[in-house]
Fold these 4 entries.
Entry 1:
Amino acid sequence: MNVNIQIHYITSSKAYQKGDFHLRGRKPEQVALEFWKQIKKDMSYNAELEKVIVDGNIDITQLVKELEGKERKKIDNFVDDYLPF
């Protein structure tokens, strides 16, 4: 199944990027988070997530932000567990 994802974000101005993605057994918010990470990686400056829209009318912004927070928390816990200081 394919989905259309629009990522709206704020940099020095408002912008958005969109694309069609195949889910391959994943949830739309997981695919959107991967797309968001790629956008941030390609940017030379910080971007703030504003809105995530799936198939033109479904807002999954909160789900993507929660997934991003969980990933960040996993990384922080890993660092805390394995650094000697």
Note: DSSP finds two helices and four strands in the chain.
Entry 2:
Amino acid sequence: MQSTKLTPGDSIEARCTKCRKNTAHVILTLGEKEPLTVECGSCARQHKYRPPSSPKKPVARRNTNSKDAERKEWETLRPSMNGANAHEYSMTGTYKVKNLINHPIFGLGLVQRVVGAQKVEVLFEDGKKMMRCK
């Protein structure tokens, strides 16, 4: 909190419940330690004081090393794959680990693992993809 004493009418940064972001607010009423109600400077909505939220961490992206590893794995497994034995991919199909599938966009793929009830992880030439299944 701030080291100076707050009074009604002071400006403070808070999280607006309507704008859904940190904006400048005017203090309307005070409690013992912090403001009770504030008014947003952007949308003029009056609401309970909510401290400003901290910025979210960026989503971690898969690094290129894992993509390279997936390509190498594909290259080692590809000679043993027979495209004639591959099942045509369908979202309503059921698949097991080591099943070969033929996807209309991604091409030939090998089921690596079953993830939950309706997803499988498939290794394609472009890398691993999560696919829906029955």
Note: The helical segments are 64-77.
Entry 3:
Amino acid sequence: MRRVWTFPADRAALIDEAYLSAREKILFDGDYRRYFSAMFEGEKQRYIDRLVLDDELARIHADVLMLHGRDDPGFPPDSLTLALSRSLPHADVALLAHCSHSIAYEQPSKFLLLANAFFGGEPGSH
């Protein structure tokens, strides 16, 4: 739980080299550290406790598409997206292979294909 909503102390604290390369510019440029730390200050468990919404989720009857990187070590799909999807009556889950946390960045073609199909658009029409 310590890695969730906690600003990384340095390069070694991030998930892996590919993730580090993609996120490093955002994390260490400018004043992002102060912004991020203020957004998630204090005890982290309180954010988790506030997310317990099983009754509310069960009342959602809209179609839902949830995308998750199958290889996300920091946020494993089994304990997050798959668990959450069981509370949503009309949820579909797509686990993307060879993908960790940043789906749209790591697998843009798969992301767009799934999003366009879900929202009824033609692939490449935007």
Note: The helical segments are 17-28, 32-39, 45-49, 54-58, 81-85, 103-106, 108-119.
Entry 4:
Amino acid sequence: MSEQRSDDIRNAVRSSYAAVAEASEAGDCCGVESSCCGVSDDAAINALISTRLGYSQADLESVPEGADMGLGCGNPRAIASLQPGETVLDLGSGGGFDAFLAAAEVGASGRVIGVDMTPEMLAKARANARKGNYSQVEFRLGEIEHLPVSDGSVDVIISNCVINLSPDKAQVFREAFRVLRPGGRLAISDVVAGTELPEAMQQDLQLHSACVSGASTAAELTAILAAAGFADIRIEPKDASREFIRDWVPGSRVEDYVLSATIEAVKPQAGQVKGS
């Protein structure tokens, strides 16, 4: 992919999610074209979206109002097995929803870092953290291809429907490998391509921001993760997810091409043979 194309994608994604954050703050609705699942001024609609993705009503009620924006394509925390005292990194943390839920599991002795490249999202997340008094959560401005996080400092990386947006997924996973401690793990919800996308769909920047055009196949992601150094790679597509993906861009048939998946992998311990 050319540098110009990569820049075009990042700029389109940043602009789209800035619009999502601003619309959410204003109580407006900017529609599915601006994000994976759109944003609504109706908390009941956002709650319906999130419960379809695997969150409980208790999850929704435990975070500050406005943190759940109805974004995402799964619940990475459900596969993360978070433990008290762990350090968690949320890639593309948005309004902070998954970061705040992770904070409840790692407790006061743990730490959660959210990274997002959109200043408007970062401002929203920080405001939500103040409202909820999350002293162990911080949000940093940065791109997931160039994480503002030190080497070997993170136990678990979570992410919810964000890595598909990157034009350089190999760099994302190299960075993830760098910041994880040996034995650290990935617990990601994202979209994967079930079949090759039509060329017109691949080139559509609006569909890229809608979590469609940037989807890679499970085989491609497995190869990228292995090349980055990860072991115990498990990618499980969820065929039932096509039901809610259909709502992302109604009438476009995107559900014929992409579906949600869980993506898990481990950074081997020193001396551990990959796959053992």
Note: The longest strand covers residues 180-193.
